[in-house]
Amino acid sequence: MTSVKTTPFKGQKPGTSGLRKTVATFKQRHYLENFVQAIFDSAPELKSQTLVLGGDGRYHNEVAVQTVLKMAAANGIKRVVVGRSGLLSTPAVSNIIRKYRACGGIILSASHNPGGPDGDFGIKYNTANGGPAPEAITNAIYARTQVLDNYKISNDADIDLDTLGDIRLGGMQVQIVDPLSDYVLLMESLFDFDAIRKMFLGGFTLCFDAMHAITGPYAKEILETRLGAKEGSVINGMPLPDFGGGHPDPNPEYAKDLFEIMFSESAPDFGAASDGDGDRYIALGKNTYVSPSDSLAILAANAHHVPQFANGVVGVARSMPTSGAADRVASAMGIPCHVTPTGWKFFGNLLNAGAINICGEESAGTSSDHVREKDGLWAVLLWLNIIAKRRLSVGDILQEHWETYGRNYYDRYDIEAIEPNKAKDVVVHLENQIPNLAGQSFSGMLVTKAYVFSYTDPVDKTVSDNQGWCIEFGETNRLVMRMSGTGTVGVTLRFYLESYDAELPSLNKPLQLALDPLLKAARILTDFERLTGRPLDKS
Ligand code: G16
């Protein structure tokens, strides 16, 4: 064991979901080690306990896994449960932490961000409940990174992670587990696999785009091998360190292969994609795309068809920028809908307290209390189980939902890599107007409420301020702007537009038409284009 002298790096503050930086940043000498030491110093309870470790297999995963293992050994961790070849999807890590009663977990992933030598890398700490560490812990980790002057690492050679079983690294036990088996067992315990299998036997067709990321093997095992979807239903199923040069973010822009298939003459009955580390998903039907906000609402409204929810949905939660579609379902069911800041960590206390058992976000994450992470494949199986029971197409389920609850037209504009000073000008410009906006009209809409979103956790009363700028135009229209916490270059500003309509004839308006007044209002209110020199559009 060696104690290595080091000096702090600026900016090792975990964002929405751990520390995400470019690979080049992570490759700097001591960069990863400093952050890992800060985790071990801030979570002394890990000593003499079990830690779970795995990553999404992106470029730098192999090197980073060995480094974390050697540092865990030097820091007195008793046992590390690690996925074979250092691989585990994010929901699989969460499950293993809970199932093996581990004290915490380290996930190596930059999620939906691109990979490869010029891409991004990331690291995240999850606590004993299987969920992302809450802000109190991530703040402590950050504070520690700022004063750290040494880290501990074992001098042992790299260990072979490709063979299942137990080996020792110094005084520490390393248990190498199959990344799939515990997760597959969990899924089998939650859903009616027989009903889904019968549906596939009856000719139901599926296309699952794994985007060359971690879910490929999980999806092949569950969808093709166990459930009998036709071989080849999982596309781009081979995980690659650079995701085949793609951007593993399941959205209309990056999951182009899938969208082409689902909007073609020969579209299968169901389409889905997941992201780099397997926690996000999107759902599609023939010529139909279900927005993540609608998907959350539909899954909540139909969950009772599925064994996992035999006792019903007790409460729902969504992040603030997510559309209010789930609120309408919750209100019709007479259950609460909690509105949290963006970031899966904010659902943790509600799930632990049993206050909710479905939650989700507009950023394509939905999950339940079966783990403490969002879970892409779980959401896909929930959809499949609902379709198997209801025998309706995705398009019919979506249309039925809108006709029952009304439609929340919804879209998000992301402007990435803005120069920090210019982004600050936009923020200051909007923030200065907030106190005086109520009563003013913008593109024909009257502002009824304008505020900076702040959240008080109902369980531990922690207050999280400055979680986004919200402007409401009556009950039906809303504009939100927030700063992303997952970008790695400059500042990413996100603009979320939402317009509710319950009138039957107008449920199928083109999205752009429905949201155009809000986009105009966003341009006026933020003066974005003048202040940044960038267009506020999708180019
Ligand atoms: C993470 C968080 C999500 C969040 C998303 C986007 O997802 O876990 O809660 O919605 O980032 O965050 P932002 O808008 O700040 O970029 P993931 O899948 O990237 O880990």
**Average pLDDT, to the nearest integer?**
97
Gross CATH architecture of the largest domain? 3-Layer(aba) Sandwich
In DSSP terms (H or I, runs of 4 or more residues), the helix count works out at 17
Give the cofactors and ligands. Answer: 1,6-di-O-phosphono-alpha-D-glucopyranose
Largest sheet: 7 strands, mixed
Which structural class matches the secondary elements?
alpha/beta
- Spatial shape: globular
Helix content: 25-40%
- Beta fraction of the residues? 15-25%
**How far apart lie the N and C ends?**
52 Å
CATH class of the largest domain: Alpha Beta
Total strand segments: 27
Uncertain ranges: none
Number of domains: 3
C-alpha Rg, in Å?
23 Å
Tell me the strand order in the biggest sheet. Answer: 2-6-5-3-4-9-8
Looking at CATH, the homologous superfamily of the largest domain is: Alpha-D-Glucose-1,6-Bisphosphate, subunit A, domain 3
Which topology of the largest domain does CATH recognise?
A: Alpha-D-Glucose-1,6-Bisphosphate, Chain A, domain 3
